[in-house]
Amino acid sequence: MKIGIVGLPNVGKSTLFNALTRARADAANYPFCTIDPNVGVVNVPDPRLEVLNEMYQPAKKTPTTIEFVDIAGLVRGASKGEGLGNQFLAHIREVEAIAQVVRCFTDENVTHVDGEIDPVRDIETINTELMLADLATVEKRMEKTSRMAKSGEKKYKEELKVLEELKTALAEGKSIRQLDPGETGKRLIKELNLLTAKPTIYIANVNEEDMIDPSGNRLVNEVKEYAAGEGARVVAISAKIEADLAELEEEEARLFMEELGLEESGLDRVIRAGYALLDLITFFTAGEKEVRAWTVKRGATAPEAAGKIHTDMQRGFIRAEVISYEDLVRAGSVAKVREEGLLRLEGKDYIVKDGDICYFRFNV
Ligand code: GDP
């Protein structure tokens, strides 16, 4: 699951990306990080994992991860191939969600590509490029579908009607994610992999002094208003502070945050917002060797979750022994959970819930 970091040049994308990968990546476990410098595998912070770690005292504790991709190169005109336009759009196609960084910090030493600092204009510049790219994709498909529709087959007529609706929305400056498409629409959007359909958050990069209370920053408020219009979230951070924090050892970083009056790191907020954006849930495996957090799409079944651990576990799935995190914490130990009859046996149709601690039984 990948989240693409996009934004105009000089807004702080690389600063944020580097902070994320320096502070939250587990380079040893993911050697390919060093092969593709634009992809960072980042640990997802989860206090539940710490609690399980205390309880089980395992040899190893492994958080779950998501990937961030630094996608540079978006400029006005990208959809027409300006700059690295096409390459840039191709990279966005490969991610499941978008984190758009917008500049809300003032710094005379850092030039803005369009002169004045105006984050809403910047968002519109980017979103317009993405809409134009989608418009081209939809039009191309319409040509093809029109030819097919000549056969009179109902399916193609319906498709053409839906494509027409998508085209109209895009031409009016709406992102596809703002629409409420029917079944055919959903299928087409997926097939065409439309860019403006991807779930999006806005990351307002603010001045260091606005970090603790960004509500006084007029620019952040403008971004929030814009985002509210499309039901998107805004996370305010200072990429610069995050970059400084990323250079420090854990204890030093904690002290520095305390000094600044920060309760939670901006990186953690970005990671968690990204995780939520992808509609993912976390389940755990726990034993004396390892406690580990795993990620599945919300709605995944027990065998699908088992498949995240090993394909054999999915293929040979018999049943899952499941304890909910809340039950375990309330009871205090696995033995108590058993005593109280809170350990559940679940079959292949069971939908895994966030916080489930699972033990899978399977045939080899
Ligand atoms: P990108 O082109 O979007 O990847 O932007 P960079 O991350 O390379 O940042 C561009 C410039 O802005 C660099 O000189 C950064 O040091 C600076 N910069 C990034 N974030 C901040 C910030 O939060 N505050 C200030 N003052 N400067 C920043």
UniProtKB/TrEMBL annotation:
The protein's name in its UniProt record: Ribosome-binding ATPase YchF
Family: Belongs to the TRAFAC class OBG-HflX-like GTPase superfamily. OBG GTPase family. YchF/OLA1 subfamily.
Role noted for this protein: ATPase that binds to both the 70S ribosome and the 50S ribosomal subunit in a nucleotide-independent manner.
Record: residues binding ATP: 10-15
PROSITE patterns for the chain: G_OBG, TGS
NCBIfam families per record: redox-regulated ATPase YchF (TIGR00092)
OBG-type G domain sequence ranges: 1-257
GO cellular component terms, semicolon-separated: cytoplasm
Keyword entries, A-Z: ATP-binding, Magnesium, Metal-binding, Nucleotide-binding
UniProt-recorded Gene Ontology molecular function terms: ATP binding; ATP hydrolysis activity; GTP binding; metal ion binding; ribosomal large subunit binding
Cofactors named for this entry: Mg(2+)
Transmembrane spans: none
